[in-house]
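I hope you will forgive my troubling you with a question about protein structure. You will find the record immediately after this paragraph.
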Amino acid sequence: MTDVPKAHPSIPRAPRNVIDREGMLPPVSALRAFLFSAQYRSFSKAADELGMTQSGVSRAIKGIEDLAGATLFERTGHGLVLTEQGRVYYDDVQAIIDDLGAATLRLSTFADADETLSIATLPSLGGRWLAPRLHRFMAQYPRIEVRITAQIGHFDLAASGLDGVIHYGNDIWPDSLSEFLMDEVIVPAAIPRILPQYTAPSGLLLRDLTLIQHLHRPTAWRDWFRAAGIDHPRPMAGPRFEQYLMGLEAALSGMGAIMMPPFMMLSELADNRLILLDRAAVRSPWGYHLIYPKSRRTKPALLRFRRWLRSEARRTWSDTQRLIDQPLATTDPAAALP
């Protein structure tokens, strides 16, 4: 399709209430005929796309022009060309049709659900922990429409319209209730190919590796080295990333070692794209909580989600304990990424 030029800024737009006052509302079918004619620069091609006759498309356009008292197209030897008024109208109509389609899609999801549940979470937690598990909640409660958004830090939860937020940090939020989900422990990991061949993984190897830092956990490596009893000359040096997902991708590229919760890298550990360098796990200063407005505490969908979320948190904590208790394997270059 041919790109349609943007409208000239000097063309004034009528106020929206004119539509109701004057009844100047063409049929949606006529508006679609106009959009496709503008995109294809041809009534016949628009008719083929819409399953209409060429004369039907032409009459639809003529109806809009008569209603508005404006000319939308100029006929040239190279096809239809939008007039200046037509370009303005194209931009307006395209936006309205897009909004109408999106509204209808939202309506269809409401029709298929008994309740909606809107939850915010940290981007990395949502992507690496919540999303892979959410199918179990949906299987239990197929009539609940779940909406997940990303949020970082504190915000006005009561004014947000959200039912809750899964938050790392303290549980003090105004006019809200909280439920503890799980602690966070962090362990060091790296890809096998940056380690000495056939060497048993050890925290001592970290002294020769770049340490990938977390922007919001600036002392994580220092705290881990202290707990592990390992002396490191510069434990807080290294590239810093705001999100665990960013640091994880850096580690998978071979940049260095990452310090993060095991549940954030389960798939990479399972297929040996990453290996743990030490079983020492250091507890982070904060934990994960579900925070929700007091006004939503009896909402049935939220009650079900809270119960399910606590169960998943317990499962995750058990999986974490099993993972860090497993013996560490000798590094094998064949397990490295290509």
Remarks:
- The chain has three domains: 17-110, 115-181+287-318, 183-284+325-335.
- Confidence is low (pLDDT under 50) at residues 1-12, 329-338.
- The domain at 17-110 is CATH 1.10.10.10 (Arc Repressor Mutant, subunit A).
- Residues 84-111 form the longest helix (28 residues).
